[in-house]
Amino acid sequence: MSPTETDGLEVLETREWVDSLDYVLEKGGPNRAGRLLQQLALHARREAGINLPFSATTPYQNTIPSRQQAPFPGSQEMERRIKSLVRWNALAMVVRANKKQEGIGGHISTFASAATLYEVAFNHFFRAQTETGDRDVVYFQGHAAPGIYSRAYLEGRISKEKLQNFRRELKPGGGLTSYPHPWLMPEFWEFPTVSMGLGPIQAIYHARFIKYLENRGLKQSTGGKVWAFLGDGEMDEPESLGSITLASRERLDNLIFVVNCNLQRLDGPVRGNGKIIQELEAIFRGAGWNVIKCIWGSDWDALIQNDRDGLLVKRLGEVSDGQYQKYFVESGAYFRQNQFGTDPRLLKMVEHLSDEQLARMRLGGHDPIKVHAAFRAAVDHTGQPTIVLAKTIKGYGLGEAGEGKNITHQQKKLNEEELEMFRSRFGIPIPDDQLHDAPFYRPADDSPEIKYMQARREQLGGYMPQRKVRATPMKPFPDSHFEEFHKGTDGREVSTTMVFVRLLAKLLRDPELGKFIVPIVPDEARTFGMEALFRQVGIYSSVGQNYEPVDMDTLLYYKEAKNGQILEEGITEAGSMCSLIAAGTAYSNHGINTIPFFIYYSMFGFQRIGDLIWAAADMRCRGFLIGGTAGRTTLAGEGLQHQDGHSHVLALPVPNLHAYDPAFAYEIAIIIQDGIKRMYIDGESIFYYLTVTNEPLPMPEMPAGANVREGILKGLYRFKTSAKSDAKLRAQLFGSGTIMFEVLKAQQILEEKYGVAADVWSVTSYKELYRDANDCERWNLLHPGEAAKIPYVTQTLKDASGPFIAASDYMKVLPESLAKWVPGQLVTLGTDGFGRSESRAALRDFFEVDAKHIVLATLGALARENKIGTDVVKKAVQDLGINPEKANPAVS
Ligand SMILES: Cc1ncc(C[n+]2csc(CCOP(=O)(O)OP(=O)(O)O)c2C)c(N)n1
Ligand SMILES: [Mg+2]
């Protein structure tokens, strides 16, 4: 009979081998022991074909054994007291806010579980400034915000009044935002993290962008780290995991994820029937990360060390997270019986511990020694990104009020008894008779606690978080880069995409400022005719080019280089957007005025990564989103999934985003030149969205006139006046993007065939006009009796007569949004509905935005104003070849 695991002989044999290994470990160190194990495995495979089973996970124990722990450098007792104060004020601010205003919300339990993780980092790791001027950047978990405010209060950076007004931002004197919002607290928060999943992916691309800056000589390499504090539930977001291989491929050892594995999310367990720490370990190890598990606290050290046969660790690995959560709320007796009662030998291991002691056995994420050791190892690790998986209890310290309970995420109220218990557990010196108010507590500035925490922060370069504009204003690019485009192309047909790429190439060539341009493409450079840039400025690669590109012998070969400038992201709009955010916020994060241009298929922008665009806006990100192949009828052939007729509608909600749909080369040049000025010289917290298209068209010269430039930027100007100055019938035509050329054709038909004199207006931005008009209207309402402000659109059109016909390659609602302020009848033509695979002409006929439909719409409007008879319109339907019974594109 072959020996079995429990067979006495086998146990003895195993023990001998383990002892031998211990001996090698002791004499030769861990590297020697590792080599020996590898040799053993090789030997076993060669001699007997033994293949060790593949395992992506390691046993359910700490990655760093206690004897390899870095010693704790601070005063544990002092840090415990400080942490208790942070805990108390974080809890008090939520409890008080909800006492005053029922339902105002806030989270207690998240920070309660993460307090040790943050405090160890604040006292020993987060560097606001290193000796060489670099710093760590930290993505704080969004709904742990109360803890971060609480610490800032103890540091004396946030007043008690502000703390009182947590979640009451509109109170006199201001309040504190619910979650991190740089838009609302621009001197405090840097990263809006509360839309879960956006923090981790941004942290990855931020860490990569830092390496990009360093490899391109724009920033010194000084060892700053990017820390991302995340929830275990949050890791289910596709964005959280979607880009982790980029981090290992790029060897981002400046990146540290800390996942607070409290085993719970909002509704209940993250993996009741599984083990989230093991699951995440497998994923991240498989992806090539350095994984550090911090599961058990120091209380477990002796037990685990004495577990020579691995019985205990095996048992710890068997129990599901749902059951661990049950242990958190149960007694020590229950824990003993369930966890250890499965084997008399296990029971024996803990017989020296009372039930009470058993119940108090601390987890790794609540033990500063273990957390410090994990962070130390993470910081010192080279060649790979690191993830720390720390096991904690959600609602730690809340006891009956919610510790480990499923309701804990939303616990905002504590009764007096619960407050008393919390107060006593953490030793906060607040007398019983004041407890009902949950008052804030801050010891005097010269108390040992405050002095200690201040000294620690001073040592680490200052307070965190802290946002500031670290860059000085940029010098302007010379006008000459832009002026070429004012001239027109003399009938030569070019697309606005080509125009944009040419302008970009010019900016890149600027000997002084060109290096700050960051072109970003998600695998569409050839689509946009940008391949010449591959050779001109190179594609960024942290390792250069380790192969001979297939097109080496061509002029425009695929050149990768360590100092390459283009971020060719591959097929990831989310990742590309994160690069835009990293580059567009470098002016504040790193004091570097990088100007990102993210060029992508417009359809895969707002509707796919709208939440990241919203976060960019919150973050005061600068730069240009360039929606290529835009317009529902301008992208021929591609069909329903590709033809974008609504990104400009989706751009409407973003308050500080300026969106333009330019038709001509000079419009693009003027918008981009002004944009760079406003963002990088004047320092405005705005960013841009421009749509460019791939239809080759002759670019006209910029018309003369003082107000053309202003009109382009404000959204509207007269491009072409009708030559037929004596006509009785008049109309005004609005065009944007490539549909402008249909409008120009319509103008001619109207003049020649129907005797209608129509002026053509270029509407570069409906959004700008809409915003200005609303602004005026609001002001007028609030200032009755004063001289009313007139919206720019109304003012500009005040002398224009006749009906107004607007044609756009986007949904009708876009021009329709101006109806109130256009001084006359407004008829809108747009592209509501699903796209089709077709030619441009067929698509414009289908969506009723081509020249003939513009003519018909104009005639219809004139008839409604009784300026012509309906018979003229009827005949026009026939003459223009329009089928009145055709399907409605909006719903077909
Ligand atoms: C994208 C997104 N979906 C939903 C929410 C709402 N929400 C806030 S916290 C939370 C649970 C978080 O669980 P976990 O990530 O485990 O963090 P913990 O509080 O347990 O540390 C949810 C669902 C959100 N903030 N963002
Ligand atoms: Mg959680």
Low-confidence stretches: none
What is the 3D form? elongated
Please report the total strand number as a whole number. 20
Oligomer: single chain
pLDDT averaged over residues: 96
Q: Measured on Cα atoms, how large is the radius of gyration?
A: 33 Å
Largest sheet: 6 strands, parallel
The CA-CA distance between the termini, in Å, is: 75 Å
Walk me through the structure.
This protein is α/β, with parallel strands linked by helices. Helix content is 42%, strand content 10%. The chain is built from 34 helices and 20 strands. The strands form five sheets. A six-stranded parallel sheet has the order 10-7-11-12-14-13, sandwiched between helices. The protein has a five-stranded parallel sheet with strand order 1-2-3-5-4, with helices on both faces. Strands 16-18-17-19-20 form a five-stranded mixed sheet. Helix 26 (665-681) links the parallel strand 13 (657-660) and strand 14. The longest helix has 41 residues, at 8-48. It is elongated. The model has no long low-confidence stretch (mean pLDDT 96). Thiamine diphosphate is lined by residues 110, 143, 194-197, 231-234, 260, 262, 264-266, 270, 394, 409.
Question: In brief, what are we looking at here?
Answer:
The chain contains 34 helices and 20 strands.
Features:
alpha/beta, binds thiamine diphosphate, five-stranded parallel beta sheet, six-stranded parallel beta sheet, 34 helices, 892 residues, single chain, binds magnesium ion
What is the secondary structure topology, with strand pairs?
Layout: H1 8-48, H2 76-100, H3 109-124, E1 137-139, H4 145-154, H5 160-164, H6 198-215, E2 226-231, H7 238-242, H8 244-249, E3 255-261, H9 276-286, E4 290-294, H10 301-305, H11 311-318, H12 321-329, H13 332-340, H14 344-349, H15 355-359, H16 368-380, E5 386-391, H17 416-425, H18 448-459, H19 480-483, E6 493-494, H20 496-509, E7 517-521, H21 531-537, E8 539-540, E9 560-561, E10 567-568, H22 573-584, H23 586-589, E11 595-601, H24 606-618, E12 624-628, H25 647-650, E13 657-660, H26 665-681, E14 687-691, E15 697-698, H27 706-714, E16 716-720, E17 729-735, H28 739-754, E18 756-763, H29 766-782, H30 792-796, E19 804-807, H31 813-816, E20 826-829, H32 840-846, H33 851-864, H34 870-879
Parallel strand pairs: 1-2, 2-3, 3-5, 4-5, 7-10, 7-11, 8-9, 11-12, 12-14, 13-14, 17-18, 17-19, 19-20
Antiparallel strand pairs: 6-15, 16-18
Bound molecules: thiamine diphosphate and magnesium ion.
